[in-house]
Amino acid sequence: MNPDGEGLVETCKEILRDVNRFCIEAGGLRLRSYQQQVARTITESAIQGKGLTFVVMFPRQSGKNELQAHIEAYLLSLCSVEQAEIVKVSPTWKPQSLNAMRRLERVIKRNLICRDRWKKRSGYIYQVGTAMIHFLSGSPTSSIVGATASLLLECDEAQDVEISKWDKEIAPMAASTNATRVFWGTAWTSRTLLARELRAARLLEQADGIRRTWVLTADDVGAEVPAYKKFVDDQVIKLGRNNPLVRTQYFSEEIDSEGGMFPLARRALMVGSHSRQNAPIPGHIYAFTIDVAGQDETVVDDSTQLSNPRRDSTVLTIFELELPKDSDLASKPIYKAVNRLTWIGVKHSMLYSTIVGLNTLWSPVKVIIDATGVGAGLAGFLADKIGTKVLPFEFSQTSKSDLGWTFLATVETGRYKEYYPFDSAMNKQLEYCQYQIKDGPGKLMKWGVPDGTRDVSDGELMHDDLVISAALISLLDDETWGTGDSQVIQVRDILEELKFT
Q1: What is the rounded CA–CA span in Å between residue 495 and residue 51?
Q2: Which is more confident, 479 or 185?
Q3: Is it true that 3-216 and 256-296+311-478 share their CATH fold?
Q4: Which of 393, 349, 395 is nearest to 369 (CA)?
Q5: Residue 362 contacts residue 280 (beta carbons within 8 Å)
Q6: φ/ψ (deg, to 5) at 494
Q7: How far is Cα 344 from Cα 372, in angstroms, rounded to an integer?
């Protein structure tokens, strides 16, 4: 910049005439082409008081949050001699609002125009001259009534902010000024705030021709950022292109908030070509997964066939593990169900003896067992007898959700195979298995066969014990397969890998 005082002022004015020039010359960052129009359109509406509503849906890790920070820094700098206020709402205070503040502070500190003119107030307000931005939490329990957005009202990760919270407490912040509103986020279900605003904005676009929406996919970003394309390609290999997380987080495709978890196309991916085995094949690698039913003191016969599934059963599924033949870190085993044993009303003491015998016969490398409630005792006894190959798994709302997402990834990548012909009882449970995605940033999925569900063909009460036992095998995805001693692994959290915060 020109060191002369008067010349410096004129240079700053010229830079401030355009947000993209501001980013390049003052911030040292050239926005990507798909970011530039978004930045220019939003800032023009805010500066000119148009009061438009925009929806920006970018795939994960494609520069959405960085774009927000540069737009905010630009508006604060441009309006620094006015009483201008921006309000930015995130679904949570920690980490999302805190991350947004750190991101803006980093941008401001390296910007030549505003790096010496900013200050932070009250722990959540950033100010440049007399212009300021308030960072607020949009969580259901937050108390944020009273702030006013005169310049811009932003909702970050709008898919995770409750509609009622927005309508009652946040939207009125722009009422007296008709400030420009921007909903940022990533695709999720059709019931979210982001989805509602996207539909409304598209209707307005059709009516007046003014662009209000930007919905990008990984293909759009990858065309400009080769490294991003490589990253997403790896995620597709790891999770499957039709995995709900891949569809929403990278390809901006909405999913239903509830429905059948294993439609016919997904079940077709689970059909194997191998036969059921009654004994192990020497040299092959096996694993057990056990879903434990509540203990019934009334002992029935010792049959291991589930001929009349009126009550919940203990299910042991035997898998053959087909290990990857290359050293690609993205490669995971193929899990081939080779046998399935079920018990109804059998005492855990008898189950213990039977499982120990099966362990001797099949020599599984891992035994994953439901250790929730009454299952904890059986899991403990097996661990004492068999050793560290026993991996106990405790079900909770969060752990079952994570298990569901992980199992879907295993199925969608073609790595789960049932013996042929397909077990009719297993197929029926898969058909009746439902999912429901809960609102909020946790991406929690409730799944299973709903209580009280009956088979429409014969009226029999349905369960999901066969499916649960099958799903447990996906917990081995992060196991290191080698010749050394195996170690107990932590359950992989797909949602963490996708970097939601």
Answers
A1: 35
A2: 185
A3: no
A4: 393
A5: yes
A6: -60, -35
A7: 18
The two structure tokens encoding residue 458: 């014969």
| 235-280 tens-digit pLDDT | 999 999 999 999 999 999 999 999 999 999 999 999 999 999 999 9
Q: What is the pLDDT of residues 379-414, one digit of tens each?
A: 999 999 999 999 999 999 999 999 999 999 999 999
Strands (E), 93-137: 118-121, 125-128, 131-137
Assess contact for 395 and 465: CB atoms under 8 A: no
Residue 3 confidence (pLDDT): 54
CATH number for 3-216: choose from 3.40.50.11270, 1.20.120.790, 3.40.50.300, 3.20.20.60: 3.40.50.300
Instruction: Fill in the DSSP letter of residue 171.
Output: G
Residue 225 pLDDT: 97
- The sign of the torsion formed by the CA atoms of 199, 204, 210, 212 equals negative
Q: At what angle do helices 244-251 and 397-412 cross, to 10 degrees?
A: 90
Residues 6+ apart with CB under 8 A from 242: 265, 266, 412
Closest Cα to residue 153, out of 186, 177, 129? 177
CA gap 461, 292 in Å, rounded:
18
Q: For residue 73, give the amino acid letter.
A: A
Instruction: Look at residue 273 and give its three-state secondary structure.
Output: coil
Extents of the domains making up the chain:
3-216, 256-296+311-478
Taking the model in full, what pTM does it have? Answer: 0.83
- Other beta carbons less than 10 A from residue 53's beta carbon: 18
